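ARCHIVE RECORD
Type: protein–small molecule complex
Small molecule: zinc ion
Source of inputs: curated submission
Record status: active
Notes field left blank by submitter.
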Amino acid sequence: MSKGRDFKLNFSMKLKVPRGINSLVLSLITVVLVLTLPGLAAQVRVNPSAPELGDTLSVVLESVTSGTQPTVTWKGKTYPMFAIGPNRMRVLLPTTPLDQPGTQSLQVNDGTQVQNLTVQLRDRDFPTQSIWLPPDKEELNGTDYEFDRVDAFKALVTPEKYWKGPFLRPNAGEITTIYGVRRYYNGDFAEDYYHRGVDYAGGMGSPVVAPAAGRVALVGRESQGFEIHGNTIGIDHGQGVASILIHLSRIDVKEGDFVQAGQVIGAVGSSGASTGPHLHWGLYVQGQSVDPVPWRSATID
Ligand SMILES: [Zn+2]
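STRUCTURE (tokenized, with ligand):
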């Protein structure tokens, strides 16, 4: 059936419907036109629709004008979007337990115009721990060397996307501390502290696997000044997503290596500021620690 015949059919049907419904149909058409005509702007989708603190926001732009470099501004910082398909671009944005829940604004510059959006960030109850330190307890401060190297690693933004599908658990041990746990030290709430990762109680020497594919962009050793982190592997998964695996007893990779999801990269240890063998896995998006749990299901790819 040709388009012309289709149109005629619809037109004659419209003549038969009662006058009230007819004008309703006309006004609906008007509304649709008003909404779509200025819509030369690319279409924006934000997921999840009801995010809570610790979630990763995915902002996807459809029908991107070729040759433009869209950006998104979030919490005062502007991030480039990356291609994830033909005329489709995306940026992943972090939320953390330190964020203010409630209405947050988001500006999307699609390359031709700016769209303002709001996101409702839901509050989340994170567990708390009380730590009592004796006054004479000797604390490790960490070294400038390790913090500089870890900061540089977290700041990496690589346009390529190396991971595919859901992330894997990096160790078979049971989870002993979840993401986001808050702390009281000697009775005082630590405003800036939250557990920036997930702890697995894997035995000493048990395998640590890459949670997703990527490029090894950081190898740090306790013997070279990684006093707090201990033996460390950082994997750049691309597009602002990175994993850090710390307190290792053994490192099987070197900087520049490409690793696959599930590949053994080292072993659980207790190096650095650790009181017993365990693996700490931190997942970073745009340099901020997010909850890895949603990444373990297929929701973000
Ligand atoms: Zn930890």
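CURATOR ANNOTATION: Confidence is low (pLDDT under 50) at residues 1-39.
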